[in-house]
Structure prediction request, 669 residues.
Amino acid sequence: MEHRLDPVDVVVVGSGMGGAAFCARLAEQAPKLRIVCLERGGWVDPAAMPPLRRDWQRATLNDWAASPNMRLKSARHSPSADYAIDDSESSIKPLMWSGVGGSSVNWAAHFPRLHPSDFKTQTLDGAGDDWPFGYFDLEPYYDLNDAAMGVCGLAGDPAYPPKPERAMPPLALGRMGQLAARGFDALGWHWWPVDAAINTTASPSRAACNYCGPCQQGCVTRAKASTDVTYWPKAIAAGVELRPYCVAQRIVIEGGRATGVIYRDSDSRELRQPASIVVVAGNGIGTARLLLASGIESPALGRNLMFHPGGYVRGIFRDELDGPAGPIGCALYSHEFYETDLSRGFKRGVHLQVTRENPLLLQAARLEPAWGREAQRLLREEFRHSMAVLVMAEDLPEAHNRVTLTGRADADGMPGVKIEYRLSEHSRRSLDFGLDRAEEMLRAAGAYRTVRLPLAPLTGWHLLGTARMGDDPATSVTDRRGRMHAVPNILIADGSLFTTVGAVNPGSTIGALALKIADGLAREAA
Amino acid sequence: MTPAFVAAVVDALLPGDSGGPSGEPALPRGSAAGIDIGVLAHVHRVVFDAIAKQSGGSAVFAATVEPARIAAIQAIERTMPEKFRALWSTLLADYYESAPVLTAMGWRSDPPQPQGHNMPVDDRAMAERLNRVRRRSKLWRDP
Prediction:
């Protein structure tokens, strides 16, 4: 029998981008509410992060791998409190971090917004579904989220509606980024330095980025924004109680309403936290898992799982470049092909992003042949002479792409979870188009050889759409306020809400959405 | 299984080179990069034993020419892919994290922090390129 705790007003599950932004905003807007956040993992100590160690490169394949399944198989103990995900029937492998700050701990901090057209894909293009509100409804929350996270970049990008001046100047492009800019320029295509949630000037508690490189192993200097260093100190100061190492097991539903959450603490005690409102922010897999494990029925729950399918083209140059230095996700992007042009043979568009390059070990690990003289000759030729262009396509919602429970118990006490995902013909066409354009740019920049990876399986950072917003309970899980149609006092505040996903990284939109949902709840609670 | 045999296998996988095109130092052979050959042989004994057997004995492998060594290793890579991959992953990390290899590839052996890296500041030409992009008419669609 679980131990029953004193009731609170709001219990939130998950402390990543959605959960953190939601808690901080709700505490600010409704200071009388008692808010508790349950987080399955703990705080990460910057002093223990791999970039301070000589064996930092191998951490990417072990305890600091982006994939929870890889971390669980690692001989080294990971600071992420992972659960296994059966991804045997998914062509893209899910990536995430489970701890205070969620996946913002090991994200690349590329911080783009969706475009206005992304919210109205059905109306404009007859593809996907419209969101229940538009870009300009979310815009004030984008601005708030930018301010809370700290964003560097440059205003004036013609690919977007006007944005306020960025708080800090953009990251330096370096030799590699400057060469990419010349390539885009030679073709007359759009390019722009990325918006990134990374300090380029120091703030009182966070240093300026020193271009060390491996953002996905955590940020030692705290130059990179993660919610454990941005939202959480404010939320805790405002009275939110954050409970690390607490694994939510199920939401208690009584009489059609949620009455609290049962969770396991670090001593394996089962506790019941009664609450008037339950908010779930465990990402597109974890959220669906918890809701399904709680017996909640809703036709679209767990369905319409969307990633951003990604492929790469690498250009090899005679000039020496500085690819392996600098924040891994950040140099510049092109939205020349972001909006629909039916002459391309598909609807919607692609995002081209010139990222920084991998460290030596990872570049060696991707070679074909893998070993022998030819492998080492190729590595000599490519290391410090390559530029990678990531092509991200827009997945469209498809009900057969989904999150389900396995029916077997997992080590964390919950039912195991599985994802099923097939790359659609639409996504394949758009990826191929983007890869062709990336190759064109690399050649224009002077690449004498290119190497193409048509689909990169380990790009499943963006876990979206499994509790989508909408007006129809038959095709959506929540309403426009993030409230579940099936159980109205359960709110969702993460990427599960996305009705469609555009072709850009979702972190900025997840934070903005969570702030909007928190404001809505605060108004209702007033 | 002799240290010479293990070293010969490691060197077939990681033969090194004679230096980079811009005067970088030579990449060392795998066995000369500071890898603990004894530990490697102990942990991945099954793979080394299979390679020796495939070659007709560890002494034969150590004495034979490179193409024959490569053929023997490729045969074991095909017959026990998981175990071979485990050996290769260990070797890859030990080798490409070693200071002589990083130096030979023109990279520093110190970790990324606390030093970081210098990044050249964007110049005036970049600003002018950006102005060209900035002057374009809007690319986004207003729904």
In short: Chain A has a mean pLDDT of 97. Chain A touches chain B through 71 residues (CB under 8 Å).
